[in-house]
Give the backbone structure.
Amino acid sequence: MASTVLEFRDVSVVRDGNTILDGVDWSVAEDERWVILGPNGAGKTTLLQIAAAAMHPTKGSAEVLLESLGKVDVFELRPMIGFASTAMARKIPRNETVIDVVLTAAYSVTGRWNEEYEAIDERRAQRVLSEWGLEGFADRRFGSLSDGEQKRVQIARAVMTDPELLLLDEPAASLDLGAREELVTLLGGYASSSASPAIVMVTHHVEEIPHGFTHALLLKQGGVVAAGPLAEALTSENLTETFGLSIELSEQGGRYVARAA
Ligand SMILES: Nc1ncnc2c1ncn2[C@@H]1O[C@H](COP(=O)(O)OP(=O)(O)OP(=O)(O)O)[C@@H](O)[C@H]1O
């Protein structure tokens, strides 16, 4: 049986008197690839922060990679988790070379200083770059890349350490159609590979759900509307309830389209 990578029981987060997550029960197994959908402010990023061991629940319990948050040294846990988000990207120095952006993941730092990297790490970084369509970009400055290229570098960095859990917060946000499709295709190939880790991706658009994704969690005002296999959780009815607007979902060849009914 597949091992569990995330186990949230009755997880709530309260900040400044506001309930951001409200009694979330959620379980992710190592062979599952989840998409999280929900309106602005629904609590998606907060949920991802807990999965990244970057935040503790106010109430309830969260196990990440079989370790209970609050009882484990999160600095031991975090190297096993790949996390790509805009907040993380902002910490990357604009003049850092692409190869260093990826290599520094091995030390969980951004900005190369005096660390020594082994040839094996450099080879792996080059391989990861080419897997994410970034061959020939190693010596480019991060700040000189297009949005689409920067997003792919962030994911390459997140997978560099061969994580057991990959978290992606809106990886296709702000991309043009071509860059989005390029990224969704790469993510689909990665997610479909038996060697890939468990993945949780937050997105605003069902069009961005890649092939190979298996499950969906729909969040509304901090609560779970639906969670489970895509065919059961990602339905017109559940999207309508989540977004408070009549929505019609269609699927073609494993990709999704949603519009107001
Ligand atoms: N530290 C905090 N203190 C108070 N409120 C917070 C804090 N962090 C987040 N919030 C609030 O919690 C709610 C959920 O935020 P979160 O970023 O998790 O939502 P989200 O679903 O990712 O939203 P978006 O789609 O807009 O990115 C928002 O209303 C936000 O303003």
